[in-house]
């Protein structure tokens, strides 16, 4: 494949930002330029490269992409990286820091570059620069004739066994100290010193040196760090400056106010979170199972990677469109760790003792290469048994030891990506939240072509039904959404996707069989039974095992997971694992284990660790090694590697390390681990209600799922919609469902249907909150339907004969002034239909069947009217009966945040005018008027609620409450 740029110099020229690659051995890559303001990417002129790069740029190790929001763009480049593994001799890196360089003007770009230079220089002075790229530093830029050598990855060697994992923080630190990293409000509320490094680690960011072996698994002997930052590497010295042109602009731009927070979030996400990995020469997005036989390809790397795990595809697309393929570096979010270990091919055999019982002469073997194995313990020679000490002296133990390399790769899907309580369940395309593929690879340390490579793949993902949970509770009750049929469609699509990708499926569901979790667990089991009975998954039966982890392992007896392994062992043996020799597949894994709990984190980590160990035993047996005869010492590093993987996956989804991590690491569970888990649970709760809402909007935006309108929505509601649910499709389905149910007269001709906002309380204009409803128009009547969007059913409706409509008022309809978008008179438009109640006008409420309800009772069911009671009506306890009734409706926003499936180009005022004109046309057509009389128009223009009136009605407490929430969330 064509070579990618491994190192480049970034500096500001007169007309744009120049990306000057460092010349690789035998490779020439021309420089590129990103023009200021319009961000056009093209080749850089030679005079710009030669004349302006002297000391005014900084070195980067790759390009993440181009972030464009509001009127500004920023180049995201990799300034620090660390080698964490090598696969087939190709180095694998984790990003430890990125730089965001503004592209508005040369002045702003140079100021940002200078700040980045200082930050990188500080790392060199503090002794964090690694000399792994010393050869690169001697190279010249592409305008000169000197070459530099490609990086030579160091082979993995056997490292010393790390000591027992020890947590260095108390519960109080987890709960109080670490929350400082979760938001600007918390940073100001708590002490500004002493907690920064811990809070970074809790978010999955740079850890201290003493804990790096626990938080990020790296072979010490070959981990190469390029300008590795100090602990807490995301500091104020490297803050991204907001362009002056943007901050001084007086023009309305709702996303600009949140731009500083977006830039900080982006810098943490791609940089100091240490959750993004890349390789210049190896496709880390594909497992050996899905990888095609190795062959030389002239296609760029980005065209070969799995799009399911290509995390920066959206923001790097401008470079792809410009044909600058050498700068397109695919990134993977997840985890990559690697450990070398030794196994004894001829372990000591058990020998009989004096009592006849077998006793093993096995010894604990230090895995460090410099350790000299001593054979001080001899076995007494009796009954003709040889002295094993002499035997070892004659036959060195080293000759029986065989080295292996274990690589663990977790790949997080870009589909339905996000954070814990904000992304649950499944979407209509069958993608589930927290979907992660984990591959465990066993190989020779040098990846020799004569040695076999074994791969075992597991997956995890949220329960594939529509459900949600509120973050405002430690153990929220799941709420099932949508109808059974809608859930089953998404459920079967999800299982079909897995079948197509992996083959057969075995499900292990770890949720509780009693209590709140059983709500979704029972739905899971019900849909699985239907799927297997219908044969909808390629005719193959999907294995389903409901293993109540908390009940079976009650009392911290996590070793009872072995019961699940015994139950599923036979089916997994049938699936097997993938084995490759050189470029040939000797065998392929024919099925996959899909594990889930509620979050797919803590319980799932324990179970996947156990099945990973089981697969390792089988793979070693294929290599002629009996794992059961080895010492227990080789297990500790394996548990730590899996625990690090669990922590990484957990930090990316729940913002904290995984629970039950002490058992995963040590296979022991005690009260200290339980107390630590309690602290992490409180930290998750805090993060879920404070920081996750904006982070979710940022993730969706960076993935291209939403447009910058999402920040306008966030400023308004401090939340963001789920782009995985097509509201346009749901609204159309709701219109069709309402038409079938509420239009009883077959002679009525259906004219049209629309989704609109209406006050939750009927027959009012000013009351809040508003909810989405469906308005149907026939040639005889209007139907205002209140729809239960979770159950996909009509909850109530009222029918208004067209002949009873008195007037339609169309104009500004502002219901709140808390945010700029809510106060925009052009975008807050609605209409009010005034009508008199007639004999044929009905209101019906859906209890279990639609039943007639009087208009007065319906008003009471919906809530109290804004009109105060007085006189006799107040004494009788019933509101006065108004002479006329109103139906208030407001147009939906014309610019939804979702990036795809938004064909609606009508503005809010155009929507309202179109609907009102259609109602007026049909209503006037059916009017009977006297001869010679003119038809009076029904539509009149005028403010329904003006901006001035809305400001008066917005109370001080409401404003303070919104400001306080914005201080915390935004």
Strand content: 15-25%
Mean pLDDT: 77
How large, in whole angstroms, is the Cα Rg? 33 Å
Low-confidence stretches: 129-150, 155-225, 227-237, 246-252, 360-397, 863-873
Q: How far apart are the first and last residues' alpha carbons, in Å? A: 44 Å
Structural class: alpha+beta
Give the total of beta strands.
Answer: 33
By DSSP (H or I, 4+ residues per run), the number of helices equals 27
Reported for the largest beta sheet, the result is:
14 strands, mixed
Share of helical residues:
25-40%
Describe, in plain words, how this protein is organized in 3D.
The protein is α+β, with helices and mostly antiparallel strands and 970 residues long. It is built from 27 helices and 33 strands. It is globular and about 110 Å long. About 16% of the residues have low confidence.
Summarize the structure.
By secondary structure, the protein is α+β, with helices and mostly antiparallel strands.
Features:
6-stranded antiparallel beta sheet, 31% helix, single chain, 14-stranded mixed beta sheet, globular
What's the helix and strand layout?
Elements: E1 8-12, E2 16-21, E3 32-35, E4 41-43, H1 46-51, E5 57-60, E6 63-69, E7 72-87, E8 90-102, H2 106-125, H3 134-138, H4 171-177, H5 184-189, H6 196-202, H7 212-215, E9 225-226, H8 244-247, H9 259-272, E10 276-278, H10 313-321, E11 332-344, E12 351-352, E13 358-359, H11 388-394, E14 401-412, E15 436-443, E16 452-460, E17 467-468, E18 479-480, H12 484-502, E19 504-509, H13 518-534, E20 543-546, H14 549-552, H15 561-575, E21 578-581, E22 584-587, E23 591-596, H16 602-622, H17 633-654, H18 661-666, H19 671-690, H20 692-702, H21 709-717, H22 727-742, E24 750-759, E25 770-778, E26 781-788, E27 793-801, E28 805-812, E29 829-835, E30 843-846, E31 850-852, H23 855-862, H24 871-876, E32 885-890, H25 908-925, E33 939-941, H26 947-953, H27 956-969
Parallel strand pairs: 16-23, 19-20, 19-23, 28-33
Antiparallel strand pairs: 1-2, 1-5, 2-3, 3-4, 6-7, 7-8, 7-9, 8-10, 10-11, 11-14, 12-13, 14-15, 15-16, 16-21, 17-18, 21-22, 24-25, 25-26, 26-27, 27-30, 28-29, 29-32, 30-31
Helix pairs in contact: 4-19, 16-17
């Amino acid at each position: 494949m064509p070579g990618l740029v491994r190192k480049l110099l970034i500096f500001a020229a007169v007309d744009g930002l120049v990306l000057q690659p460092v010349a690789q051995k035998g490779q020439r890559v021309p420089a590129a330029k990103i023009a200021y303001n319009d961000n056009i990417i093209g080749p850089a002129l030679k005079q710009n490269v030669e004349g302006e790069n002297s000391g005014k740029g900084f070195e980067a190790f790759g390009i993440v992409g181009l972030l464009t929001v509001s009127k500004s763009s920023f180049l995201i480049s990799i300034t620090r990286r660390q080698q964490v593994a090598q696969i087939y001799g190709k180095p694998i890196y984790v990003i430890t820091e990125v730089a965001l360089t503004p592209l508005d003007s040369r002045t702003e770009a140079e100021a940002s570059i200078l700040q980045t230079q200082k930050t990188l220089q500080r790392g060199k002075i503090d002794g964090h620069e690694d000399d792994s790229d010393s050869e690169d530093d001697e190279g010249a830029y592409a305008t000169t004739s000197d070459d530099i050598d490609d990086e030579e990855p160091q082979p993995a060697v056997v490292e010393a066994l790390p000591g027992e994992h020890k947590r260095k923080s108390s519960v109080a630190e987890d709960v109080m100290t670490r929350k400082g990293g979760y938001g600007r409000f918390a940073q100001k509320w708590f002490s500004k010193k002493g907690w920064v490094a811990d809070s970074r680690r809790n978010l999955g960011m740079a850890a201290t040196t003493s804990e790096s072996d626990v938080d990020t698994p790296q072979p010490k002997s070959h981990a190469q760090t390029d300008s590795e930052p100090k602990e807490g590497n995301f500091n104020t010295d490297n803050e991204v400056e907001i362009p002056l042109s943007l901050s001084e602009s007086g023009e309305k731009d709702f996303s600009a106010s949140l731009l500083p927070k977006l830039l900080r979030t982006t810098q943490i996400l791609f940089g100091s979170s240490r959750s993004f990995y890349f390789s210049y020469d190896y496709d880390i997005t594909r497992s050996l199972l899905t990888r095609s036989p190795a062959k030389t390809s002239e296609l760029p790397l980005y065209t070969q990677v799995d799009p399911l795990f290509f995390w920066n595809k959206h923001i790097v697309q401008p470079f792809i469109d410009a044909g600058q393929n050498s700068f397109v570096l695919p990134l993977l979010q997840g985890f990559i760790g690697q450990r070398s270990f030794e196994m004894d091919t001829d372990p000591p055999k058990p020998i009989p003792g004096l009592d006849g019982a077998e006793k093993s002469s096995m010894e604990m073997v230090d895995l460090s290469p410099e350790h000299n194995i001593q054979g001080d313990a001899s076995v007494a020679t009796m009954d003709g048994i040889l002295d094993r000490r002499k035997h070892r002296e004659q036959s060195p133990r080293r000759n029986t030891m065989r080295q292996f390399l274990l690589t663990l790769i977790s790949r997080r899907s870009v589909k339905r990506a996000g954070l814990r309580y904000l992304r649950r369940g499944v979407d209509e395309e069958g993608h589930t939240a927290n979907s992660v593929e984990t591959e465990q690879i066993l190989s020779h340390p040098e990846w020799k072509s004569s040695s076999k490579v074994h791969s075992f793949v597991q997956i995890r993902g949220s329960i594939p039904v529509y459900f949600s949970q509120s973050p405002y509770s430690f153990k929220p009750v799941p709420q099932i959404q949508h109808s059974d049929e809608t859930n089953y469609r998404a459920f079967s699509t999800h299982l079909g996707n897995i079948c197509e990708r992996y083959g057969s499926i075995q499900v292990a569901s770890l949720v509780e069989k009693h209590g709140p979790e059983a709500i979704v667990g029972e739905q899971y089991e019900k849909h699985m039974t239907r799927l297997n009975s219908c044969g909808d998954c390629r005719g193959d039966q999907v294995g389903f095992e409901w293993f109540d982890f908390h009940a079976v392992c009650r009392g911290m007896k996590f070793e009872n997971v072995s019961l699940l392994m015994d139950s599923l062992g036979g089916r997994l043996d049938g699936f097997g694992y993938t084995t490759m020799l050189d470029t040939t597949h000797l065998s392929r894994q024919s099925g996959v284990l899909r594990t889930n709990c509620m979050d797919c984190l803590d319980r799932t980590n324990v179970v996947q660790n156990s099945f990973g160990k089981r697969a390792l035993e089988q793979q070693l047996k294929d290599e002629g090694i009996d794992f059961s005869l080895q010492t227990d010492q080789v297990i500790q590093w394996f548990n730590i590697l899996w625990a690090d993987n669990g922590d990484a996956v957990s930090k990316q989804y729940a913002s904290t390390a995984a629970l039950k991590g002490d058992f995963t690491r040590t296979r022991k569970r005690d009260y200290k681990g339980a107390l630590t888990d309690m602290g992490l649970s409180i930290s998750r709760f805090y993060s879920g209600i404070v920081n996750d809402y904006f982070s979710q909007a940022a993730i969706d935006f960076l993935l291209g799922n939403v447009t910058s309108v999402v920040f306008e929505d966030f400023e308004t509601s401090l939340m963001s919609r789920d782009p995985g649910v097509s509201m346009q499709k749901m609204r159309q389905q709701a219109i069709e469902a309402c038409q079938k149910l509420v239009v009883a007269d077959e002679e009525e001709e259906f004219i049209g249907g629309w989704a609109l906002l209406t006050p939750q309380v009927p027959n009012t204009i000013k009351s809040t909150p508003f909810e989405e409803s469906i308005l149907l128009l026939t040639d005889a009547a209007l139907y205002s339907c209140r729809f239960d969007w979770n159950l996909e059913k009509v909850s109530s409706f009222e029918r208004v004969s067209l002949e009873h409509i008195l007037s339609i008022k169309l104009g500004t309809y502002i219901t709140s002034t808390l945010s700029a978008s809510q106060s925009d008179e052009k975008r807050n438009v609605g209409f009010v239909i005034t009508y008199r109640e007639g004999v044929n006008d009905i209101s019906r409420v859906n209890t279990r069947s639609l039943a007639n309800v009087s208009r007065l009772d319906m008003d009471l069911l919906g809530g109290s009217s804004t009109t105060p009671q007085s006189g006799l009506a107040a004494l009788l306890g019933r509101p006065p009966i108004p002479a006329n009734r109103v139906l208030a409706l407001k147009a939906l926003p014309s610019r939804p945040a979702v990036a795809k499936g938004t064909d609606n180009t009508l503005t809010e005022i155009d929507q309202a005018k179109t609907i009102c004109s259609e109602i007026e046309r049909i209503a006037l057509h059916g009017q009977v008027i006297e001869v010679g009389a003119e038809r009076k128009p029904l539509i009149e223009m005028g403010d329904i609620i003006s901006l001035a009136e809305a400001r008066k009605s917005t109370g001080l407490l409401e404003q303070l409450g919104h400001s306080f929430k914005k201080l915390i969330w935004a």
